[in-house]
Write a structure and sequence with these properties.
Blueprint: H1 15-32, H2 40-54, H3 65-77, H4 85-97, H5 113-121, H6 128-137, H7 150-161, H8 170-182, H9 191-200, H10 206-221, H11 233-242, H12 247-250
Helix pairs in contact: 1-2, 1-3, 1-11, 3-4, 3-5, 5-7, 7-8, 7-9, 8-9, 9-11
Length: 251
């Protein structure tokens, strides 16, 4: 039985979108600190039970594409194997409900990204829906890139970097260069773009490291009393670790 004080998926079907940050936090703690804190295993199992209890018989969460994609990502972050029945059922539902997007613009909408990313992480990049999006984004003449804003570029990169073939596309390097060149200001939200560099093997771009290093005092100074940075916590931690700056938070 779930902790009575914990949010319930049954009472709030969008709870798992919020719990995704908690799940990612557990994953970061394992990969960054290479250790688990007391209670992590129990918390992870509770979140997994909550997720599975909220999944409908058709495989979706609340019959919503974005929520279903987020639920799939959470299960994957909790180390559920891709061929687990819950994920397989959700994937089939997603494939039935992914609507094609008109050509000439980005071949996905923002609410589709979690579901597409989950399919790619499950190794189902050959599904027509995922293949269509990745092929359009990684085309040599990327007609979407010149008109896309930074938020859409970041989403497109997440999809491209999750595909073992598309991640080496010249478009990926071009998009990353554009994000680095556009970085301005001291907003923790911008740190996420630099975390993408590590995934693409482009950490040697001087602008990425120089900008991140210059932001460390601001990032450390803006850390909240609870130890995080709100919704940007995972991105901040990833970027600091990517550039070997995690010690800045421990000093």
């Amino acid at each position: 039985m779930s902790d009575a004080s914990a949010p319930s998926f049954r009472r709030n079907p969008r709870f798992h979108l919020l719990s995704l940050a908690t799940v990612e936090g557990l994953a970061l703690r394992r990969t960054v600190l290479r250790e688990a804190a007391p209670g992590d295993w129990e918390l992870g199992n509770r979140l997994m039970r909550e997720l599975q209890a909220a999944q409908l018989e058709d495989g979706s969460w609340a019959g919503d594409l974005e929520q279903t994609g987020a639920g799939m990502l959470a299960l994957l972050d909790l180390d559920v194997v891709p061929n687990h029945p819950s994920l397989e059922l959700a994937a089939e539902w997603v494939l039935e409900h992914l609507e094609p997007v008109l050509e000439g613009a980005l071949s996905f909408t923002r609410n589709q990204v979690p579901a597409l990313l989950a399919l790619l992480r499950m190794g189902r990049q050959h599904e027509p829906a995922a293949q269509r999006v990745v092929s359009q984004l990684s085309a040599d003449e990327a007609g979407w890139l010149p008109t896309a804003d930074n938020a859409d570029i970041a989403l497109a990169l997440k999809l491209l970097l999750a595909d073992p073939v598309a991640r080496s596309s010249p478009v990926v390097a071009e998009a990353l260069e554009r994000l680095v060149g556009a970085a301005q200001g001291c907003d923790p939200a911008e740190v996420e773009r630099f975390a993408l560099l590590e995934a693409c093997g482009l950490t040697d771009l001087p602008a990425a490291r120089d900008w991140t290093v210059s932001q460390v005092p601001f990032v450390v100074g803006s850390q909240r009393e609870d130890g995080g940075w709100g919704e940007h916590t995972p991105a901040v931690v990833r970027a600091l670790c990517t550039h070997g700056l995690w010690e800045s938070l421990l000093a």
